[in-house]
Amino acid sequence: MGQCVTKCKNPSSSLGSKSGEKEPGCKSHHKKGAPCKEEPGPMCGKGSGDPVANGTKTVEVTAETAAPPAPSGETCEEEASAGDGEELSLARIEELFGRYKDEKDDAILEEGMESFCSDLNVDPAEFRVLLLAWKFQAATMCKFTRKEFVEGCKAIKADSLDSICARFPCMLLEAQAEEKFKDLYRFTFQFGLDSEEGQRSLYRDIAIALWRLVFTQHTPAILECWLDFLSENPSGVKGISRDTWNMFLNFTQVIGPDLSNYSEDEAWPSLFDTFVEWEMERRNRAREEEERRCADDLRPEDEDGERGGGMGP
């Protein structure tokens, strides 16, 4: 997938691009008069409200597996603090930050981030790094400001490489909780934007990589079909809007993998209409091809091994 979390030194990875264009917007009208959807819900704790799908019912995001309830962030932090045997040291956090800080900027940048991940024994492109960025509330990929790093370490109660590594299991468990994952999911969209350029939508290939990343622990059944659709790009979409990103999480929870309960009359982004039509056509073609193969296998063969119904004259 490339260096998708940090965008570091991977020229073939689209996540190194800072471009991002808006996709075609949501439907301007619906057959039953449903209004165009506004951007649903908060991003990183900002704003309020959840999107409404299928007309009247507020969609709740639920975990796909019957995993045991994850502890709250506070519980994780209390357990981590209790197991350390010593108090958190701001001086050690500052010293750790200084080890990776850029020489000219008061932040950990690309080179320092790669060294930091290497010392943590994690790949910069893996899910645990996304979790760390989420806990640090990092505003930009491949960058930790001093404030983000210090406040993030304080939040997870870690002041050394070993103690940060020790927090990963708890962070992985925490991200399984319904509301925590929703927050992580929405954070991931904002994290993928180039805030310095005022980007408002994710470049399509960046969105594809981030969708694969954020669903590392629980992969929706429809995910790969959706990503295949975006990769083939029959709709010509160049960017993924916040509305589409947020609504896709609801889509995975409300719409079954056979897509039979999807309705264009509901207030889904118009890109979802195109996807469902494309996917159903693809499945129909695959079914017809399978039926043809089965029919060919059942046809009798003549003595020469050629298809046919009997001997010639």
Automatic annotation (TrEMBL):
Region span, Disordered: 1-84, 283-313
Superkingdom of this protein's organism: Eukaryota
Acidic residues: bias regions: 75-84
Any Pfam family the entry gives: Cullin_binding
Main localization of the protein described in the UniProt heading: membrane
Extent of Basic and acidic residues compositional bias: 283-298
GO MF terms held by the record: cullin family protein binding; ubiquitin conjugating enzyme binding; ubiquitin-like protein binding
Low complexity composition-biased segments: 58-67
Annotated InterPro entries: DCN-prot (IPR014764), DCN1-like_PONY (IPR042460), PONY_dom (IPR005176)
Keyword terms, alphabetized: Cell membrane, Cytoplasm, Lipoprotein, Membrane, Myristate, Nucleus
Recorded GO CC terms: nucleus; perinuclear region of cytoplasm; plasma membrane; ubiquitin ligase complex
Domain DCUN1 residue range list: 88-280
UniProt-listed GO biological process terms: positive regulation of protein neddylation; protein neddylation
Localisation: Cell membrane; Cytoplasm, Perinuclear region; Nucleus
Protein name: DCN1-like protein
Annotated organism of origin: Scleropages formosus
